[in-house]
Amino acid sequence: MKMQDFRLDGKVALVTGASYGIGFAIASGMAEAGATIVFNDIKQELVDKGIAAYQEKGIKAHGYVCDVTNEEAVNAMVAKIEKEIGVIDILVNNAGIIKRIPMCDMTAEQFRQVIDVDLNAPFIVSKAVIPAMIKKGHGKIINICSMMSELGRETVSAYAAAKGGLKMLTRNICSEYGEFNIQCNGIGPGYIATPQTAPLRERQPDGSRHPFDSFIVAKTPAGRWLEADELAGPAVFLASDASNAVNGHILYVDGGILAYIGKQPK
Ligand code: NAP
Ligand code: GCO
Description:
By secondary structure, the protein is an alpha/beta fold. It is built from 8 helices and 7 strands; from the N terminus they run E-H-E-H-E-H-E-H-E-H-E-H-H-H-E. Helix 1 (21-32) packs across helix 8, helix 3 packs parallel to helix 4 (108-136) and helix 4 (108-136) packs parallel to helix 5 (157-177). The protein starts with 11 loop residues before the first strand and ends in a 13-residue tail after the last strand. It binds NADP nicotinamide-adenine-dinucleotide phosphate and D-gluconic acid.
């Protein structure tokens, strides 16, 4: 093992939904480790904003407009990337949505929308990149899972079902394509301060913390929300040759939430 194995020089990394938030932080870390960054988002406006944000960090990222739930559009994007940039060595299935609605109030259509983005799309994008990875003789797929790959809570039935499914899709890709030197692992972030969780951190009218905000701080041994940048190191590791023997694993980056029973009452 050499420290050089942690580098990503010469590798092409596609991070989905990475114009801001966790995807942006992971892609920025991968760029610093030497990878060429490709990302997508649904709207041109967000792709443009993303490219400008990467530029500000000195990163020349390549952005594409693509809805990851649309198989035809994904196949076209991957073909374009392979032609314009090169074969994708690293895929991060990051794009995701959440709907916080009590299960009995949720329509089947709303449930399907979450499953479509958070579970069907990683299937669609992985399927699009695996053939070229097999030809090239290696590949890394990282699925962004969740605490909800392990735990449930009120209002997030669709999200938990999708992220639990994504954990098993990760293990299945590992099982099915490990023999082609493809490693598929997941990262399970804890509670990260991004726009997705902003409603859970909003200050109350009297200036006090949102009750969910206090709840998460109490549930996390680290005693705080985590920053998106804290996911970059684990992602670089899982994208690099340093993790070639790690396959089908979910790396929880949660400040200790899953290890913790909670603070004992005083
Ligand atoms: P975010 O701030 O909401 O960003 C998600 C990104 O995905 C956005 O750029 C969004 O674009 C994009 N996206 C959504 N649907 C898409 C589609 N159909 N096609 C292409 N792009 C799409 O979320 P985040 O907090 O950074 O989360 C990133 C990932 O981490 C998600 O999978 C999320 O479930 C997971 N995660 C988040 C946390 C957390 O605490 N924040 C914890 C664990 C796991 P638009 O802006 O256009 O919608
Ligand atoms: C919620 C949150 C979570 C986080 C994350 C936890 O409403 O509970 O949005 O689901 O985003 O996925 O790991």
